[in-house]
Design brief:
288 residues; alpha/beta; eight-stranded mixed sheet; 11 helices; 12% strand; elongated
Length: 288
């Protein structure tokens, strides 16, 4: 296995990746649009490339840690004639379709491509709960999995280069409303005169229980979703109570109002159809 790699993009995640490679004994060549961002990792032993072309020429494999795929074209485009026979591993976040287009763009320039999504707890990848989704040609992943392993455990999903972003963005879709809901819950508890620390263990216990609930909902999703009309009425009432609990103490309840809107839409659609129309069907856009 090659013990050297190039890395382009030295934001917080990119710098964390360089440190992981260096700790594993790799020779790492780095480049960043703002050259001063390379200073800290160069002090740790990384080699600074003066240009993108120099970074590409230094190694067979180049890892990208950029804001989005548009940045890949901006960075690699001027050095496209240095891509032939290289392997580009793009760990930037974007949509699945952008990952597929990026894979085609790299392939047209004679290089091989893997896309990835970094599931990281915090600003670095050093947490034991971190891992990276990869997708792209299996022979490319198999050839370079050991080189990429020092970053954190790999989860290979399949040949479609968009798959890593399907799963990565799926988790972000789950994360964003969950974090905001937790903030609303904490604000409601605090504005009600109770310390957040007293609420914390109950929130953690509830989160642990969601693993079982997720499995149940996944099974129900296979047959169209969850909820009959009486359940929808109960959920409408439940969200109303949560809204009132927040608004009574001056806390913004817009997130739960959005949830209530889905229950009410599902209830109205179900009553019109004379049969349950689960919220999943609304969210999937089944033409209800």
């Amino acid at each position: 296995m090659s013990r050297s790699v190039s890395l382009i993009g030295l934001g917080p995640m990119g710098r964390a990746m360089v440190k992981q490679f260096l700790a594993a004994g790799f020779e790492v060549t780095v480049w960043n649009r703002s050259p001063e961002k390379a200073d800290a990792v160069v002090e740790l032993g990384a080699k600074r490339a003066a240009t993108v072309a120099e970074a590409l020429d230094a190694n067979e494999v180049t890892v990208l840690s950029l804001t989005h795929y548009a940045a890949m074209y901006d960075v690699l485009g001027p050095a496209a004639d240095h891509l032939r026979d290289k392997v580009i591993v793009n760990l930037s976040s974007d949509s699945p379709e952008q990952a597929r287009r990026g894979a085609a763009w790299i392939g047209e320039r004679g290089a091989r491509f893997l896309s990835g999504g970094v599931i990281s707890d915090g600003d670095t990848i050093t947490s034991p709960t971190s891992y990276i989704f990869y997708s792209g040609p299996p022979e490319v992943f198999d050839a370079h999995a050991d080189l990429l392993r020092p970053l954190c455990p790999p989860e290979y999903l399949g040949a479609d280069p968009g798959l890593s972003q399907v799963f990565y963005q799926g988790l972000l879709i789950l994360m964003h409303p969950l974090l905001l809901a937790y903030e609303q819950a904490m604000a409601t508890v605090e504005r009600s005169g109770q310390p957040i620390d007293r609420f914390l263990p109950y929130a953690q216990r509830f989160l642990d229980s969601l693993g079982t609930s997720f499995a149940v909902f996944a099974e129900l999703a296979k047959t169209g979703g969850w909820g009959d009309i009486s359940t929808m009425k109960m959920m409408d009432a439940s969200t109303q109570h949560a809204i009132e609990a927040s608004e009574d103490v001056g806390v913004d309840a817009a997130l739960v109002r959005t949830a209530q809107g889905y229950w009410r839409r599902a209830l109205a659609a179900s009553e019109e159809a004379g049969q349950p129309i689960p919220t999943l069907r609304l969210i999937r856009g089944d033409g209800v």
